[in-house]
Structure formats: structure tokens, C-alpha cells
From TrEMBL:
Source species: Streptomyces davaonensis (strain DSM 101723 / JCM 4913 / KCC S-0913 / 768)
Species lineage: Bacteria, Bacillati, Actinomycetota, Actinomycetes, Kitasatosporales
Annotated EC: 3.4.11.2
Name by which UniProt lists this protein: Aminopeptidase N
Gene Ontology BP annotations: proteolysis
SUPFAM superfamilies: Leukotriene A4 hydrolase N-terminal domain, Metalloproteases ('zincins'), catalytic domain
Length: 499
């Protein structure tokens, strides 16, 4: 009735609004991905999880996992529906105390429709009862669940959570965790953080683990099996819990000779990266036939094969360096993987220097000299390598070379101030390659665009003159192989996945 008084533009806008029923005007399904161009279906839109409470039971004999996940979240949009990422069978879902309907779609989507639409900015409690046999599930044709003779292990990057708990599976959504797992007496359940308590009843033992700082989903881990557990404390006072499968055979001694140095190495890394950011340390070696290692938060996963050639502290240095570069400060998107791997590799070069087995400069010179200009190594851009090359050796070696070039450009004082300051500036959050460049420019007061372009983004080997101006490979003869090279190269497959 009043429309005739409206100006045409206003009328058009009013009609659009009136065409949508009031209740659905702003309420829509959340996106099935968080918006990562490398992995469009990973994570989800419309909410942010603050805590995962996982109460599980696992039977090693059958690989059956069952339990209840309680997620505390906050909506970031009005939601009529939202997704989680998960592969096991869901029996029931409750949202804010009312039964919700659910369906599966895509490779790993669980679509949940609450009885009532959720308003933006509201607190939501999601309870999911589930069960399944993780080793029977695949997504995109692969599995991240490693069945062992005495149990199973969830550890992989970027995908590990789908096989054992429903999540918003992307590093952008970090949360705290309580992981409680019941296993038969005589079997252990290992996860992140501190072991709060264990209780035994009727032949089953429950392990209650807590990870009390924000943790990315891929950094949450679960290992069930027969482990020998060692405990201690770093000199700086962080409690250390390590776990070794009782089935490591000839690799047992070398694994222990490496991982028992966790406290020492973490304290050493703290001199470069700032105080250790979590209240627990450790590592675990299950009896898997995998080859890689992973920086699962507070307690890295190591494959037995990492120790087949003897002890190797280099892999421990790499995974512990990630506790700062990767875990404390996580990637904003998976294209930012250099923020993790370039620095973890550079920490290995610093360790080589510390051990008197070759300086970072010598290793950088060696990498530059031994990779010919036509080596495909140089076509990978560590600053944005693409999903297929996310864990290419260039992200590691060329990535660390970029840091040596930066160090030579701005000098040791600013360089090491940046290594330490960065972990404080973005502590418990996320950051991108662009954020790092901006921070390096801020601290050094220099414009570093061309240096970052040359070493991280150009798909070709920097020419000799450019390398010389970055103080890389100034000698005309190829440098000798640094003593640490073989041990470092032995960790090149730390992120070689089974898929
Ligand atoms: Zn790594």
C-alpha cells in the first residue's frame, strides 16, 4: 500500500527483501570448505571450534573405534546447516541438546541440520556418537590410518582427523583437546599434551590426555599399541613423555638414542625461536611401515624407518622446530607451507653448525652449487608450490636457502630477532608467507620484495650474479659436501605420504 511513495531504487531493494521469508533471510547452509584453494573441500564454513572433547574406546584386535565427540563452537554466520569432515559411521548427532538430522556427501563431508537455525555469534555444543573401523575407510583413494600388529595410528598431513574424529579440518580453526581413550589392559593410548590420569576397570584402561593450547586438527594424533613409555623433564622444566613400540626390533636403540634427546634439542631450539610454547614434550615411534615423521603437537610421530641407518637427531630437530614453526604459528592456507618447512629445514642447518658438521652458509652454498640450472628443483616455487608439490624437496632446501639469503642480506642481528619475534607476534595463530615478508621488512627496515621473489617465487635458478650478491656460492669451485649432509638428506622423506 505504501509502495507508490517509494523511489524506484528503494522499491527494488524492498522487493528483494520481501521475496525472502523472514526466518530464512539470513540463515543458509555453511560452506563445505573453509576456502583453501589447494584443498577446496577441507574445513568448513560458518563456525569456529574452540574445544574437542573425544571420549573413545578402541579394540586393537578388530580395529574398531567407537565413542562420542563433543565440540564447542561459535557460529560466524547465521546457519541453517553446517558441515564437519569425517569418515566413520555416525549414529546420532545432537546440537544444543536437541537431536539433529545428518547426511554424508562428497569424500568426507558430514552435513548436520539442527532443529533450529543457528544465529551468527552463538555458542553451539555439538555431540556426535560414532563408530567404525578406521582401516576400512578411504578418502580420495588413500588412508591416513596406519594399522599395526597391536593397534593403529592416525598421523598424516594435511589429512589425519577424518579417520578418528569429526572436525573442521583446516589449520585456520585451532582448538584445545581432551582425548580420552579406553583400550584393553596392557595396551597404551598415546595422544598430544599431558597425561592427566589413567583408570582401569574390568580389563580396560582409560588414558586421559589434554592438549591445553590451540592445536590444528592435523596436529592431533592418536596411537594405540603396546608401548614402552619413558618420562623425564627438559633442563628448562618441560615434562617429556616418549613412547616406543615394543616391536621396533633393530631400530629400537637408534630410535631411543635420537628421541631421548628431545628435551636437550627443544631447549637448544628455544635459544633461536623463543621459549618452548607448550607444557609437554615428547615423541612416539609406533611399529608402522611408514617412512615419514610428523610434527604432531607436543609429541611428534616418528616412523621406525627414520632410524634404520642409526640414530638421527636431525629428524628430531626438524619435528621439534615445527613446534614453533607450524604448530605455535600455523599456516593461513596450505600454500604457506614454506612457513613450516623452510624453517624446520633451516633449523637442521643450524643444528649442523652447532654439531660442527658444516655451517648453514656451507650447506646453502652446497645446495646452490649441486642443483644444476635445469634441475626441476628450481621450477618449484616454495612460496606457493601448488598442492602436488606441497612437500617437494625444493620447499625444504630452496626454502632454507631463501632464509640464508635473507640472513646475508639483513645481517645476523635482525635475522635472529625475526626468527624469535615472529613466533611471538603470531603465537597460537596463523600467518602467511606475505605476513613473514612484511614482518621481515618491518624489523630490518629494508624492502625485501625482490629477495623473496628471487628465492621463493621465481620458477628458475637464481643466476650466479644474484646468488653472489646474496653471498651464496661465492667460490668458483663447487664446495665440498658438508659432513651433516647425509644425515640431513636422510630426513628428506619426513613428509613423504602414502598417497
Ligand atoms: Zn617438516
Amino acid at each position: 500500500m505504501h509502495r507508490r511513495f517509494f523511489a524506484p531504487g528503494v522499491l527494488a531493494a524492498a522487493s528483494v527483501l520481501l521475496a525472502i521469508p523472514a526466518s530464512a533471510a539470513s540463515s543458509a547452509p555453511g560452506a563445505s570448505g573453509i576456502g583453501d584453494p589447494y584443498y577446496p573441500a577441507y574445513g568448513n564454513g560458518g563456525y569456529d571450534v574452540s574445544h574437542y572433547d573425544l571420549r573413545l574406546k578402541y579394540q586393537p584386535a578388530t580395529d574398531r573405534l567407537e565413542g562420542t565427540a563433543t565440540l564447542l563452537a561459535r557460529t560466524t554466520e547465521d546457519l541453517s546447516r553446517f558441515n564437519l569432515d569425517f569418515l566413520l559411521d555416525v549414529g546420532e548427532v545432537q546440537v544444543n541438546g536437541a537431536k539433529a538430522s545428518f547426511a554424508t556427501s562428497g569424500e568426507h563431508e558430514l552435513e548436520i541440520t539442527p532443529k533450529k537455525a543457528l544465529a551468527k555469534g552463538s555458542h553451539v555444543t555439538i555431540v556426535i556418537r560414532y563408530s567404525g573401523v578406521p582401516s576400512g575407510e578411504k578418502a580420495y583413494g588413500f588412508t591416513s590410518w596406519h594399522r599395526t600388529a597391536d593397534g593403529g595410528v592416525a598421523a598424516n598431513e594435511p589429512e589425519a582427523a577424518w579417520w578418528w574424529f569429526p572436525s573442521n579440518d583446516h589449520p585456520l580453526d585451532k582448538a584445545t583437546y581432551d582425548v580420552s581413550v579406553q583400550v584393553p589392559d596392557g595396551t597404551q593410548a598415546i595422544s598430544n599434551g599431558t597425561l592427566q590420569s589413567t583408570t582401569s576397570r574390568l580389563g580396560w584402561t582409560r588414558y586421559n590426555w589434554r592438549s591445553n593450547k590451540p592445536q590444528a586438527t592435523y596436529l592431533a594424533t592418536l596411537a594405540v599399541g603396546k608401548f614402552d613409555i619413558t618420562t623425564g623433564r627438559s633442563e628448562s622444566g618441560i615434562p617429556v613423555v616418549n613412547a616406543y613400540s615394543k616391536d621396533l626390533g633393530d631400530n629400537d636403540g637408534a630410535a631411543r638414542a635420537s628421541i631421548e634427546r628431545t628435551g636437550e634439542i627443544a631447549d637448544w631450539l628455544a635459544e633461536y625461536f623463543g621459549p618452548y610454547p607448550f607444557n609437554a614434550l615428547g615423541g612416539y615411534v609406533p611399529n608402522t611401515n611408514t617412512g615419514y615423521a610428523l610434527e604432531t603437537q607436543t609429541r611428534p610421530f616418528y616412523s621406525p624407518r627414520q632410524f634404520a641407518a642409526g640414530s638421527n637427531t636431525q629428524v628430531v630437530v626438524h619435528e621439534l622446530a615445527h613446534q614453533w614453526y607450524g604448530d605455535l604459528v600455523s599456516v593461513s592456507g596450505w600454500k604457506d607451507i614454506w612457513i613450516n618447512e623452510g624453517f624446520a629445514r633451516y633449523a637442521q642447518w643450524l643444528w649442523s653448525e652447532h654439531e660442527g658438521e658444516g655451517t648453514a652458509q656451507e650447506i646453502a652454498d652446497y645446495v646452490y652449487a649441486t642443483r644444476a640450472a635445469d634441475d626441476p628443483f628450481w621450477t618449484v616455487r616454495p612460496g606457493d608450490p601448488g598442492p602436488d608439490n606441497q612437500f617437494h624437496i625444493a620447499v625444504y632446501d630452496r626454502g632454507a636457502l631463501a632464509l640464508q639469503a635473507l640472513r646475508n642480506e639483513i645481517g645476523d642481528e635482525d635475522f635472529f630477532a625475526i626468527l624469535k619475534g615472529w613466533t611471538q607476534k603470531y603465537a597460537y595463530g596463523n600467518a602467511s608467507v606475505g605476513d613473514f615478508r612484511a614482518y621481515a621488512e618491518q624489523v630490518s627496515g629494508q624492502s625485501l620484495g625482490s629477495l623473496f621473489d628471487t628465492w621463493l617465487f621465481e620458477p628458475s635458478k637464481p643466476v650466479a650474479a644474484t646468488a653472489r650478491s646474496a653471498s651464496i656460492s661465492r667460490e668458483s669451485v663447487a664446495p665440498a659436501q658438508p659432513k651433516s649432509w647425509r644425515k640431513i638428506a636422510a630426513t628428506n622423506d619426513v613428509h613423504d605420504h602414502g598417497h
